[in-house]
Amino acid sequence: MPRVPDPPSLTPDHIARVHREIADAGPAPGVEQQTDADYGHWVAHILKDHAPGAPIQLFASGSLIWKPEIDHRAERPAVAQGWHRAFCLRVHRFRGTPDQPGLMMALDRGGQCRGVVLELPPEDPAVQLDRLFRREFTVKPINNIPRWLVVRTPDGPVKALGFVMNRASPYYAGRLPPEEVARTLARACGHWGTGAEYLLNTVTQLDARGIRDAGLWRLQALVAAEIERMPPGS
């Protein structure tokens, strides 16, 4: 009889303890936003290396798995060699505030990352990419750089669009100790919700696809323990 995987230590009850209703204050003063022309440039840049009429393959490793916000017609497992998912993007909005910055995941250099490839419909690729890019990056300099990756799938190598961390961004947090990441995720909350919820959603959706990321699994246990140590209302 197959072994039933252990459930995460982090639970919806933990999320409820740290969730707060926070209004979106908008971009911070002095932060330059991507413009319509900027998004148009990125769309053209990506499409120039894409075969017309072919569906775009999108590599998803985090929230794109459980909240893609873009139509896709197929999904299959994939591995991106030379990249790993990491909480290395510091955020002062969305899942954090200026007073309590949060962390979100991005693909950073080194190692490998197991995720999925989403096959987008072949119609209107420019429209699809514009919507996708407006979801993935908003400020200048760009945080998540769209680029073509070659990923491994059960059917062989596939050229897929991925988003990788711009290490020159002022929001790049570098490689942080898991304990520091856990303290941040246990406390940070923005108008999109908490960092703890973001982590739990990712772990749960990866696990449902048979992907057990050892680093994230340890991290969710650390976040659960951190929340349990926090005084009520903190």
Structure characterization notes:
InterPro entries: ChaC, GGCT-like, GGCT-like_sf. Its EC number is 4.3.2.7. The protein is of the alpha+beta class and 234 residues long. The protein has helices at residues 12-18, 36-47, 63-66, 125-136, 178-187, 195-208, 214-229, and strands spanning 57-60, 74-91, 102-119, 144-153, 156-165, 189-190, 193-194. The protein has a 5-stranded antiparallel β-sheet. The chain has a two-stranded antiparallel sheet with strand order 6-7. A hairpin with a 2-residue loop joins strand 4 and strand 5. Helix 2 packs across helix 4 (125-136), helix 5 (178-187) crosses helix 7 (214-229) and helix 6 packs antiparallel against helix 7. The termini are far apart. The model has no long low-confidence stretch (mean pLDDT 95).
Task: Provide a short characterization of the protein structure.
The chain has 234 residues and is α+β, with helices and mostly antiparallel strands. The chain has seven helices and seven strands; from the N terminus they run ααβαββαββαββαα. It has one domain: Hypothetical upf0131 protein ytfp (Roll), CATH 3.10.490.10.
CATH architecture: Roll
- Approximately what portion of the residues adopt beta-strand conformation? 25-35%
Question: Using only CA atoms, what is the Rg?
Answer: 18 Å
What is the rounded distance between the termini?
A: 44 Å
What is the CATH domain class? Alpha Beta
Structural class: alpha+beta
* Name given to the CATH homologous superfamily: Gamma-glutamyl cyclotransferase-like
Report the average pLDDT across residues: 95
Tell me roughly what share of residues is in helical segments. 25-40%
Count of helical segments? 7
Q: How many independent structural domains?
A: 1
| Uncertain stretches of 5 or more adjacent residues | none
What is the third-level CATH name, the topology? Hypothetical upf0131 protein ytfp
Question: What coarse outline follows from CA principal-axis ratios?
Answer: globular
Total count of strands: 7
* Order of strands in the sheet with most strands: 1-3-2-4-5
Keywords: Lyase
Protein name: glutathione-specific gamma-glutamylcyclotransferase
Enzyme class: lyase
EC number: 4.3.2.7
